Amino acid sequence: MDGAVKEDLKQFLDELVVRYNTPDFIESDPVSIPHSFSSPEDIEVAGFFSAIIAWGNRKSIVRNADALMKRMDREPFRFVKEASERELMPLADFVHRTFNGRDCIYFVKALRAIFARYGSLGGYFQQSYAQCGDMRQVLAGFWHCFFALEHDKRVEKHLSNIERGAACKRLNMYVKWMVRKDNGGVDFGLWRRIPASALYLPLDIHTGNTGRMLGLLKRRQNDWRAVEEITGALREFDGADPVKYDYALFGAGIDKIIR
Predict the structure, then answer these.
(1) How far, in Å, CA of 125 to CA of 92, rounded?
(2) What is the distance, to the nearest Å, from the Cα of residue 155 to the centroid of all Cα atoms in its chain?
(3) Do residues 33 and 44 touch, judged by C-beta distance below 8 A?
(4) Cα(138)–Cα(119) distance, integer angstroms
(5) Nearest Cα to 94, choosing from 58, 52, 144?
(6) Other C-beta atoms within 10 Å of 70: how many?
(7) Which of 25, 116, 205, 206 is 20 to 30 A away from residue 220, measured at CA?
(8) Helix, strand, coil % in the chain, rounded to nearest 5
(9) Consecutive H or E run containing 99
(10) Is the pTM of this model over 0.90?
(11) Spatial separation of the C-alpha atoms in residues 63 and 65, rounded to whole Å
(12) Cβ atoms within 10 A of the Cβ of 219, count?
């Protein structure tokens, strides 16, 4: 890509950022669920569960994530830390696609164990990043930490494993929500000890297809190698904040701006 083409593409992407990275994006997106809370602790937990079930129809994701928060008495952080076995029972019949009540209860207990050791999800991610300075290692370590408790093997499919080459779209999306902070009002910027430059693009069918049409991604499979490739390309446009282009690529894909 020569200099002039690259500059034109950067200008186009920056215009898409202005268009999509706004509060108008929030209402119809899973990020609306953590935005319904005010305390950082509740935002972290609500964001995590909303990201974990973020596959399929967006309306269904938002509806089911909101229903899950109601089952947690709209106090997700307190619920995860303190809910008794009896209080966990309303989760038993929760379903979002293949994520069921048993999965949900394990996720609560796994988070509780992480809270007991690190204080919060932010505590885990920020401490881990401080130790290694590499989000790839942080994501890999999180998978092992999360499944440290005794569990059914089937629950593992709901948290992608970077060591198996997965794109980790939902985890990358969640971490982006928690780390990035700008004037757009969409991302939260709660985890200030992780720089935005360390993040990787939440790669899905929309961001992948748009990236390919723009020449940012050649790899056909949406796996971790593709994540590294497209994030590397975006770092050439903004090394300090490459994944600010996430909503731009996603929105352009949804609205079919590029054909």
Answers:
(1) 28
(2) 18
(3) no
(4) 17
(5) 52
(6) 9
(7) 25
(8) 65, 0, 35
(9) strand 99-100
(10) yes
(11) 6
(12) 16
